[in-house]
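Renewal narrative, Specific Aim 1. Our central claim is that a sequence can be written position by position from structural information alone. The example that follows is taken directly from our test logs and has not been curated for this report. It begins with the structure tokens describing the chain, in the order in which they were read.
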């Protein structure tokens, strides 16, 4: 499993820091410090692509709405189909809460 290659003390500490954040404002502050605007926008775009793919949107519709490349859409599709179910977990949790 690819996720096993990620595991380690420093990444655990980063995830612990993220999990310690309690509000959306704290997330904005933390991510503003730790990542560039481009990195944050790329993560946000991938998450939007995943939501749209899971809701049955077509590649062309996703391209129009998110400005994501077909390569990005394909990569997210592979993660949804063959990944660790992280997108699915987060998207389903958010849907339950709303």
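The sequence written for that structure reads:
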């Amino acid at each position: 499993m690819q996720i096993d290659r990620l595991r380690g003390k420093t990444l655990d500490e980063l995830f612990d820091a993220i999990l310690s954040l309690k509000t959306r404002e704290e997330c904005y502050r933390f991510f503003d410090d730790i990542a560039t605007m481009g990195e944050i926008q790329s993560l946000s775009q991938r998450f939007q692509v995943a939501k749209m793919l899971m809701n049955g949107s077509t590649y062309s519709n996703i391209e129009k709405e998110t400005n994501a490349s077909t390569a990005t859409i394909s990569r997210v599709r592979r993660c949804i189909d063959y990944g660790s179910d992280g997108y699915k977990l987060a998207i389903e949790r958010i849907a339950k809460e709303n």
